[in-house]
Design a protein that fits this description.
Elements (H helix, E strand, L loop, with lengths): L25 H7 L4 H12 L8 H34 L1
Helix pairs in contact: 2-3
């Protein structure tokens, strides 16, 4: 299921929680969901939160925050570019 596919939630377990066939490690899930570099790093840091040797929970949370902020900037830039392209095409 590509990351652009949405699934309506009924408040219980839905298909977006199902693991893909053959997934044995986090990288399989990252590739299945077509996560970009930043989102993949957020996912990995959330999964290992506070469990990586030499990295505190605070370190992991700051790493997550850093990648989230970068992804927001990237998406906002992309959205602005799409708006400019739309205006140029239709005005």
């Amino acid at each position: 299921m590509p990351s652009s596919t949405t699934v309506k939630s009924d408040g219980w377990s839905t298909s977006y929680y199902e693991l893909p066939s053959g997934a044995v490690e986090l990288q399989d899930l990252i590739e299945y969901r077509e996560m970009n570099f930043s989102v993949g790093n957020i996912f990995k840091a959330c999964y290992r939160l506070g469990r990586k040797d030499g990295a505190t929970t605070l370190y992991d949370l700051n790493k997550i925050k850093w990648y989230v902020e970068r992804e927001i900037i990237r998406l906002e830039r992309e959205q602005r570019q799409q708006q400019v392209e739309f205006k140029e095409e239709y005005l």
